[in-house]
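#struct-pred
JK: can someone run the complex with NAP? inputs below
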Amino acid sequence: MEKKKGSSMTEAVLILGATSAIARATAVAFAARGNTLYLASRDEDELRRIAADIYLRYGVNVYYGLFDAAATDTHEKFFKSVVAIMPDLSGVVLAFGYLGDQHAARDFSAGAKIIAANFTGAASILSLCANHFEALQRGFIIGISSVAGDRGRQSNYMYGAAKGALSLYLQGLRNRLYSSGVRVITVKPGFVDTAMTYGLPGLFLVASPQNIGERIVRSLDKSADVVYLPWFWRYIMLIIKHIPEPIFKRMKL
Ligand SMILES: NC(=O)c1ccc[n+]([C@@H]2O[C@H](COP(=O)([O-])OP(=O)(O)OC[C@H]3O[C@@H](n4cnc5c(N)ncnc54)[C@H](OP(=O)(O)O)[C@@H]3O)[C@@H](O)[C@H]2O)c1
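RT: done, structure tokens with the ligand placed:
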């Protein structure tokens, strides 16, 4: 289902998981640059509200439609419908994610939902986006992974494993698409103040979704391939990745 708000036409960006707080801020930052948007998620009412708000504030075209990352058999039809509406599609931001409950690691049927939302679904839709941009020899893909994918921890290793797989997938895609002129950027946020982290214990250096959204869009103006947000997480994770395993396995993280 696709609906639109607005009437102008310029370079178009598809945002997957557009009801997320980070995605919403990213959409606003693109709209401020005059980009046409397609917002996709499972919550049509919320998409309608976000689309109306962005159109009112920025006057850009905002389409929206239903998308479920886990329903991989629907992805081809979905992506074709996006390209039919926005033939000038210039980029995709993959923002959906599902933290789930780490206890799911003890129950694989629950853990499988974490993998499906964060990795399998991402690989499915991104393979279609990659083929499209490769044929056009242009475009960009921004994938929101996580610092959680940099090292396995007992508190979130199901989510971390799925995000780690996504980071590797994006790395391979970047290598494949480089010669086609298609840019692939991996974004690894630290803690961000969103519904995903609401009420979680032990958070520190928590960033606002607005800050992260603006920086995601600004990453297109720079040459970096892997962007830690805020920047200091690159160094925090560098330290965490270098803790020797015999010590790391004893830590409560
Ligand atoms: N918050 C943090 O601290 C943090 C840190 C590192 C990385 N990240 C990553 O940043 C991204 C945005 O996170 P956020 O904190 O802004 O999240 P959020 O506000 O909790 O939103 C999560 C989003 O994922 C979408 N989603 C979940 N399962 C989906 C599915 N099966 N199909 C389609 N959409 C699905 C939800 O859409 P609907 O439910 O509306 O369909 C929602 O838009 C995620 O990839 C997350 O993993 C977040």
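RT: quick notes.
DSSP finds eight helices and eight strands in the chain.
The pocket of NAP is lined by residues 17, 19-22, 41-43, 46, 67-70, 95-98, 117, 121, 144, 146, 189, 191-192, 194-197 (CB under 6 Å).
JK: thanks, will look after standup
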